Amino acid sequence: MDFLRVFITAPVSIIVLFLMSKLIGNKQMSNLSLFDYINGITIGSIAAEMATGDFSDFWDCFIAIIVYSLTVILLSFLSQKSIMLRRFFTGKAIVIYDRGKFYKKNFSVAKIDMNEFLTILRNKGYFCLDDVETVFLEQNGDMSILPKETKRPVTPDDLKIRVHQTRPETVIIMDGKILEDNLKNTGNNSDWLKKQLNLQHKHFDKIYFAVCDGDNNLKIYDNVNEKNKNDVFE
Q: What pLDDT, in 10s, does the model give residues 65-84?
């Protein structure tokens, strides 16, 4: 094997694979449909062939991965526009269990047996079928469970309690560096940041991480340059 060739083609194949994956869209493994799974395997195989095959085949693999990725992007676009194509490529949710009845044919479609079904319920915290109203098998193979009204968690609406809606925290300082764009997006500036640091008696060089919450409060996390040798679990 020509190691110099592999040294050149392997990084190129990784870059191409990364760029094509970003164009196609990234999902968590648990959210992949069968169509997404097949696409990932195929594009990965082409990228591996690009890295390890003959140098004369490099451009063939390069063109193949580009064409295949563009085809996937086109099919994804068409699936967004057509319900029929979307159902064909990604599938649809099916009912496995509903109101005390099992749908045996859907069990066959899902390729699961009763033991697997009960195991999944237990993993999701349901040890008694009497607590379950409906179970759906989603397109990605995961199961969604609708509990009975009397078994679901109590919400503030149930208790007639008014709660304050929290907002995502915005990172202002990361690794000791100020993220200027994030600071601006919170409606604040460097003067506000300096004022907050003074109010909390913090020195910038000791701050490792800081966020701004939905109430415009700055939360600071210090950086300690020492090891903590205490084992709190022993």
A: 777 777 777 877 787 787 77
Work out the number of other CB atoms within 10 angstroms of the CB of residue 119.
12
**Which H or E run includes 101?**
strand 101-102
Written as one letter, the residue type at 78 is L
Over its C-alpha atoms, the chain yields an Rg (Å, rounded) of: 26
Q: Residue 101 forms beta bridges with which residues?
A: 98
Angle at 52 between CA 50 and CA 53, to 5 degrees: 70
- pLDDT, tens digit, for every residue of 167-217? 789 999 988 889 999 999 999 999 999 999 999 988 887 888 999 998 899
CA distance linking residue 28 with residue 69, whole number of Å:
18
Positive or negative CA dihedral for 104, 108, 113, 118? Answer: negative
CA distance 148 to 134: 8
What does the alpha-carbon distance between residue 216 and residue 207 come to, in Å, rounded to a whole number?
A: 18
The owner of tokens 């869209």 is 25
> In angstroms, rounded to a whole number, what is the distance separating the alpha carbons of residues 134 and 101?
9
CB 65 within 8 A of CB 47: yes
